[in-house]
Amino acid sequence: MSCSRRNFLAGSxxxxxxxxxxxxxxxxxxxxxxxxxxxxxxxxxxxxxENACIGCTACTEACREVNxxxxxxxxxxxxxxxxxxxxxxxxYRFTRKSCQHCENAPCVMVCPTGAAYKDETTGIVDxxxxxxxxxxxxxxxxxxxxxxxxxxxxxxDKCDFCRETNLAEGKQPACVESCPTKALTxxxxxxxxxxxxxxxxxxxxxxxxxxxxxxxxxxxxxxLKGEI
Length: 228
Description:
This protein is an alpha+beta fold. The chain contains eight helices and eleven strands. Keywords: 4Fe-4S, Iron, Iron-sulfur, Metal-binding, Oxidoreductase, Repeat.
C-alpha cells in the first residue's frame, strides 16, 4: 500500500480522529526486510525491546539534555500500561512513543514550505526550522501524534535520532547510550550485517499503524513476559 499526498489528504480526517487506536502488525522480519539501497545511502531505524524496558525514563532525560529540549514538550515518551498481575507480583508493559521516521511520511507530504523533509542519505525525517511557518499541517497529519511546536525555535519539532548532536559526533542516539538495560538498538537497515538487522532477524517484531502505508522504521519487540 502506498501513501501518496493525495490519498492521505483525502482520508486525513479519519486518520486524525482515530490516532488513539494503534493498529499494529506482527511480522517475521526475515521475510520483510530488504537491503534495497545500492548507492551507499543509509536507512536508519530503531528497535525498542518491550521485554527489556523497565520504564526508568533515562532515555527521555538524556534526549532532553543532549538535544536541549525545552520543558513542557518532549521528543520521546515511554508509555506505561495498566498493572498486570496481583500485588506483589505486578508487572507493567512499557512502550516507546516517538517519531517513526516513516519511509512514506505524511508530515513531509502535507508541508507547504518543504520544512518537513526526509534526508535521502540517512532516511531520517527532519525539520528545516527556518522554513517552518507554524501552520500545524504536519502535526495534524502525523498519525502517531509525535510532533510538537518548539517554544524556543518556534517551529515544528520531534525526534531526529540525534542527527545534529550525537550522530554528528559519531555516537549513538542519546536514548540508546543512556538505556541501562540495552532495550534500544539503532542502526542502518540497509546494512545486512548491522546489529539492528541481527536483532530484527532473531526476534518477532511489530510496527504501529502499518496499514496506513507509512512504512515506519521504529520496530518493537512485543512484551511477552508471563506468556507460555
